[in-house]
């Protein structure tokens, strides 16, 4: 929309400059007033057609650029929200011709690393929890219950992540 407004302002500026130039030519006696009206109308029609074609071209290009940029940005927004909520299974897949493919690859690589780290941590914590549960069997009730509580907490450390 901004581009269309800028094009319209530019077109008006060209028309205005043409009007002032022709007015100056009349004032200085270079062109007679009846000739000016013919020239001004001819120039105005040419400018109008060119401005109209330019606005249509700019509108078409704006829609195309917006389409190839807005789609990927929407996918990034959805993926970041899922990531914020702990969903590490999200990946960004863009259409052929979409912008930001390099950034989507970087996002996917970062999520892969994060997912692998959480998976490894989950396995280590599971092993530690199992060891605590085994050790709890050999202790008195109070100490054993404390180790079982700790083991439960270890199993829940990465519970907020979906991998």
How does the SSE layout of this entry go?
Layout: H1 2-27, H2 33-84, H3 101-136, H4 141-156
Helix pairs in contact: 1-2, 3-4
Characterise this structure.
The protein is mainly α and 163 residues long. It has two domains: 1-85; 88-163. Helix content is 80%, strand content 0%. The protein has four helices and no strands. It has helices spanning 2-27, 33-84, 101-136, 141-156. The radius of gyration is 35 Å and the shape is rod-shaped. It starts with a helix and ends in a 7-residue tail after the last helix. The model has no long low-confidence stretch (mean pLDDT 85).
Q: How can the largest sheet be summarized?
A: none
Instruction: Indicate the structural class.
Output: mainly alpha
Total strand segments:
0
The number of helices is: 4
The radius of gyration over CA amounts to 35 Å
| Outline | rod-shaped
Summarize the helix and strand pattern as letters: HHHH
Instruction: Give the count of structural domains.
Output: 2
The level of helicity is over 70%
Strand content: under 5%
Low-confidence stretches: none
What separation lies between the terminal Cα atoms?
42 Å
Mean pLDDT: 85
């Amino acid at each position: 929309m901004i581009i269309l407004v800028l094009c319209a302002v530019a077109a008006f500026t060209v028309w205005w400059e043409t009007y002032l130039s022709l007015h100056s030519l009349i004032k200085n006696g270079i062109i007679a007033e009846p000739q000016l009206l013919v020239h001004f109308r001819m120039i105005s029609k040419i400018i109008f057609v060119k401005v109209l074609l330019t606005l249509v071209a700019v509108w078409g290009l704006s829609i195309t650029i917006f389409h190839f940029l807005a789609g990927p940005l929407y996918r990034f927004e959805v993926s970041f929200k899922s990531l914020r909520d702990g969903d590490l299974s999200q990946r960004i897949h863009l259409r052929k011709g979409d912008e930001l493919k390099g950034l989507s690859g970087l996002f996917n690589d970062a999520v892969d690393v994060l997912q692998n780290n959480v998976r490894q941590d989950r396995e280590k914590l599971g092993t530690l929890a199992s060891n605590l549960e085994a050790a709890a069997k050999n202790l008195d009730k109070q100490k054993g219950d404390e180790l079982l509580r700790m083991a439960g907490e270890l199993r829940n450390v990465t519970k907020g992540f979906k991998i």
